[in-house]
């Protein structure tokens, strides 16, 4: 950050407040924007469906990173919070017949509340102890989702969610992925921008102060209690948003989509992407959602049957190996690697 | 200098973007009358139910291999994309999208969780879906228009088991141990209702089986406190066998009644013949030793692979004949000269009448109609004697 900004002077306060300062940053933004706009026209329905699941994962990963990466509160409850968002939105949409945006907004609020509730142990617990406490929240929520008949159809089938419609606008069958892409793109972009800006406010700064040293933060006048609970609420709000979108996008809500594996997957996303980095959450989500697809395609291409029949095991092994490799080589994840690549180009031929 | 770099960056990004836009999978392949028939197969080889999922899947792939070597479906080969989903619903959803993209016209699934999660999707995409899940909800075309259930449902199996317990009963306390998932809980409520409706003098208590347990001694002490004489199990073979071993180790006077997925040779072998002795198995699919006519073709095929149905187990035949039912539907469509797609296959399955399975499924025939996708409702009851499955009753319906 600092290196790239060398030689950049601001002539107005407004300029200084901008998210981007250099021409290169604007050029990259333009490229990303162009790619996002072109993507749905060049990608087929299948690739677009992968992209859609990634966009949902981006929102979830950003939410988790607010809690784990920025506030330093380890959480294994991601799957549970996704479930709260998904079930809340699905139920309000189907049973209370609220319009989709309202039900999604309610899901965000409810999940934030549930998150704050399950965040209470964080006031007394830290590190591994908190991880186990949040694991309990994951198990409790999934247990409720498993056993509560109200969360299923009367026939016992999982909760079905009708095709997404707002007013007169309904997602068509033929352009299902295409239309969802635009909705999810807008949601993901807004989430990323909101999170990015959150850490330019005093609330966001107080999160980071708590992460770095909670006693020092308290001495500086940060209300640690408030910061921790708010972090849980804000983070869960994002996660609930992702869960609600997932419910409407997949059109079926079953607890089996929200197991502990999902929580671990999201943790892996932010570790690989970069703890305490919003951009990192995005890279991590892309990386880990594409990895199984890529492995599947590669091994399918190789056409070795004994490999293909062990694919999920290989996926898990590769997940583990990738995480170890990242923790050893670059603990700050893909985001830091990208920074270093930029620095390298910028300073070339000098080292620094 | 900066401009050059920007230009470089733009070029690199553009190249990346362009390389990503490989042409999307062509959907018009299916229009070719002689092209292979694309289907997708979602299998559990390494997940929670992999012990029985693997032979089932191998049976299915064996059938496809066999039918292709016999000239396929009226000259068209079946081209199956098969992947392991390790009993993870999100993976199944991803694989499903992949198969749809590849132009599959039908899907073979596996578990209750993924089948129910995909139920609405296959209805929207008009893809007939068969799976090894026999949950009651899947038989109702109003709820699940594209799901087909070839065997008696878990609920029917539980009803048969309860009837048997009531008739032969030496006690009226029944413990219903089940896998803690949609698969396990599917028949629980129906079993309770059945006792009420039929006025059976039975007391049914349900117990979810904790996954990943080294033994079930704790659970069995609860069962003993209930005073249960019968232990109905809705789970796969390995945990059920563990229950049998624990019962023997604890010297409890309990008789296991296994439903479909633990009522097999694997249960007997894993528990060991002494621990499995006298336990009762409700199994709609004829076991290898039963001499069902439909087993001959499987044995012939397996001989070429230096194996036999005896070695592969009854779930191999289960996979084989599930695929057979779907293939017969395809044959009906193709021989009528219609274009083979999802809706045509659905219609054929509903209207073609009974499909013969050579005595392997239930009483031997599987038949669907527009009002019911319950392919069969009869099952066999077996008892383990000296490590072998011996017939108690055949063709039992609730």
Explain what you see.
The complex is a heterodimer of chains A (352) and B (398). With 352 residues, chain A is an all-alpha fold. Chain A has one domain: ABC transporter involved in vitamin B12 uptake, BtuC (Orthogonal Bundle), CATH 1.10.3470. Chain A is 73% helix and 2% strand. The longest helix of chain A is centred in the last third of the chain and has 27 residues, at 224-250. The mean pLDDT of chain A is 87. In chain B, helix 9 (237-249) packs parallel to helix 10 and helix 14 (314-335) packs across helix 15. Chain B folds into 2 domains: 33-152 and 291-367, Response regulator (Rossmann fold, 3-Layer(aba) Sandwich), CATH 3.40.50.2300; 154-283 and 381-396, Rossmann fold, CATH 3.40.50. The N and C termini of chain B lie far apart (82 Å). Chain B is an alpha/beta fold. The chains are: A mainly alpha (352), B alpha/beta (398). The interface between A and B is large, with 44 and 50 residues.
- Secondary structure class of chain B reads alpha/beta
Q: What can be said about the biggest beta sheet of chain B?
A: 7 strands, mixed
Report the strand count of chain B: 14
Please give the domain count of chain B: 2
Shape of chain A: globular
**Helix percentage range of chain A:** over 70%
Order of helices and strands of chain A: HHHHHHHEEEHHHHEHHHHH
As a percent range, the share of helical residues of chain B equals: 40-55%
Query: Could you please say which CATH topology of chain A applies here?
Result: ABC transporter involved in vitamin B12 uptake, BtuC
Our estimate of the beta-strand percent of chain A is: under 5%
Strand percentage of chain B lies at 15-25%
- In the predicted model, the low-confidence regions of chain B spanning at least 5 consecutive residues are 11-30
Write the element-wise H/E pattern of chain B from the N-terminal end onward.
HEHEHEHEEHEHHEHEHEHHEHHHHEEEE
What is the average of the pLDDT values of chain B? 85
**Nearest-angstrom radius of gyration of chain A?**
21 Å
Task: Specify which chain pair forms the largest interface.
Answer: A-B, 44 and 50 residues
How would you write the strand order of the largest sheet of chain A?
1-4
Number of helices of chain B: 15
Q: How many distinct helices of chain A?
A: 16
Number of domains of chain A: 1
């Amino acid at each position: 950050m600092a290196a790239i900004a060398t030689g950049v002077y601001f002539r107005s306060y407004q300029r200084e407040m901008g998210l981007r300062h250099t021409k290169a940053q604007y050029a990259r933004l333009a490229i990303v924007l162009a790619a996002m706009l072109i993507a749905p026209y060049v990608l087929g329905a299948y690739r677009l469906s992968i992209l859609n699941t990634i966009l949902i994962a981006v929102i979830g990963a950003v939410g988790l990173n607010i809690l784990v990466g920025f506030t330093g509160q380890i959480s294994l409850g991601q799957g549970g919070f996704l479930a709260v968002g998904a079930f809340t939105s699905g139920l309000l949409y189907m049973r209370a017949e609220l319009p989709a945006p309202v039900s999604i907004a309610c899901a965000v609020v409810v999940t934030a509340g549930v998150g704050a509730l399950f965040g209470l142990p964080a006031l007394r617990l830290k590190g591994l102890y908190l991880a186990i406490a949040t694991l309990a929240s994951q198990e409790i929520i999934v247990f409720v989702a498993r056993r509560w008949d109200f969360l299923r159809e009367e026939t016992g089938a999982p909760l079905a969610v009708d095709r997404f419609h707002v007013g007169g606008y309904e997602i068509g069958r033929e352009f299902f992925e295409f239309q969802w892409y635009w909705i999810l793109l807008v949601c993901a972009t807004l989430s990323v921008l909101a999170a990015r800006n959150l850490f330019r406010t005093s609330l966001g700064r107080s999160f980071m102060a708590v992460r770095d040293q909670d006693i020092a933060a308290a001495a500086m006048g940060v209300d640690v209690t408030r910061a921790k609970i708010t972090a849980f609420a804000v983070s869960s709000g994002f996660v609930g948003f992702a869960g609600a979108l997932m419910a409407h996008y997949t059109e079926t809500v079953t607890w089996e989509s929200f197991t502990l594996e999902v929580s671990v997957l999201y943790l892996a996303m932010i570790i690989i992407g970069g703890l305490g980095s919003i951009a990192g959450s995005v890279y991590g989500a892309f990386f880990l959602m594409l990895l199984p697809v890529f492995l599947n395609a590669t091994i399918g291409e190789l056409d070795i049957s004994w490999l293909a029949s062990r694919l999920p095991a290989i996926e898990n092994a590769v997940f583990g190996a990738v995480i170890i490799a990242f923790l050893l080589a670059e603990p700050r994840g893909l985001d830091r690697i990208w920074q270093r690549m930029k620095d390298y180009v910028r300073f070339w031929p000098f080292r620094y | 200098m900066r401009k050059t770099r920007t230009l470089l960056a733009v070029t690199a990004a553009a190249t990346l973007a362009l390389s990503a836009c490989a042409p999307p999978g062509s959907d018009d392949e299916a229009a070719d009358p002689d092209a292979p028939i694309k289907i997708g197969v979602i299998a559990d080889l390494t997940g929670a139910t992999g012990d029985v999922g693997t032979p089932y899947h191998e049976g299915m792939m064996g059938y496809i291999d066999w039918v292709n070597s016999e000239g396929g479906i009226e000259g068209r080969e079946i081209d199956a994309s098969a992947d392991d989903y390790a009993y993870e619903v999100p993976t199944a959803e991803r694989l499903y999208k992949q198969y749809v993209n590849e132009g599959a016209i039908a899907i073979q699934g596996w578990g209750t969780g993924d089948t129910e999660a995909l139920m609405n999707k296959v209805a929207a995409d008009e893809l007939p879906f068969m799976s090894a899940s026999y949950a009651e909800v899947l038989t109702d075309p109003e709820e699940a228009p594209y799901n087909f259930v070839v065997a008696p449902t878990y609920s029917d199996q539980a009803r048969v088991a309860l009837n048997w317990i009531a008739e032969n009963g030496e006690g009226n306390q029944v413990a219903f141990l089940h896998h803690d998932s949609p698969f396990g809980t599917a028949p629980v409520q129906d079993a309770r209702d059945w006792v009420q409706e039929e006025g059976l003098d039975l007391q049914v208590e349900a117990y979810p089986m904790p996954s990943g347990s080294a033994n079930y001694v704790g659970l069995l002490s609860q069962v003993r406190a209930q005073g249960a004489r019968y232990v109905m199990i809705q789970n796969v073979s390995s945990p059920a066998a563990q229950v049998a071993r624990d019962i023997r180790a604890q010297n409890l006077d309990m008789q296991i009644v296994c439903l479909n997925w633990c009522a097999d040779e694997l249960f007997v072998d894993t528990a060991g013949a002494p621990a499995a002795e006298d336990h009762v198995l409700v199994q709609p699919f004829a076991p290898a030793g039963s001499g069902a006519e439909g087993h001959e073709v499987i044995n012939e095929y397996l001989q070429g692979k230096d194996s036999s149905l005896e070695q592969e187990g009854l779930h191999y035949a289960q996979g084989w004949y599930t695929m057979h039912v779907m293939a017969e539907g395809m044959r009906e469509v193709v021989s009528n000269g219609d274009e083979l797609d999802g809706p045509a296959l659905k219609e054929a399955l509903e209207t073609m009448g009974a499909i013969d399975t050579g005595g392997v499924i239930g009483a031997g025939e599987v038949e669907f109609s527009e009002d019911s996708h319950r392919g069969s409702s009869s099952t066999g009851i077996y008892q383990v004697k000296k490590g072998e499955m011996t017939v108690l009753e055949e063709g039992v319906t609730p």
